[in-house]
Write a structure and sequence with these properties.
Elements lengths: L5 H12 L9 E4 L6 E7 L5 E7 L3 E7 H6 L9 E2 L9 H11 L2 H10 L11 H5 L1
Helix pairs in contact: 3-4
Organism: Paracoccus halophilus
GO molecular function: endonuclease activity
Keywords: Endonuclease, Hydrolase, Nuclease
Amino acid sequence: MILLTDTQRDRLLANGRDRDQDHIPVVKFFNPFGAGVWLATELDEDGGIMFGLADIGYPELGSWSLNELRSIRLPFGMGIERDLLFTGDFPISVWAETARETGSIRDAERLLYRSGHLSNGTRSDTETWHS
């Protein structure tokens, strides 16, 4: 799977040049087999380091390597996936606060969706519909 479209890459790069803002996440990545959700708001000029909210056991704001996400190999030849239906809808500060309160990005998304805060009601990933 292509982790970033050209449009997403352009938006992330633009956000990376304007770091003093509370950006809305542009893209969501997830591990289809377990822990691991990343909401990216920015990409550095070199295109290698992303910034946003990462949750691999506990949600934290920070940076990670796009290449490392690409290199993760999971069972059945799969890798980290991009949520094709994700829309950020809220600034990263709202996502971070809700994720800290609920304990995870996945639970934050469920809470925001159930409370009517997410406008389009998209699924957060395949686990959401099976849990």
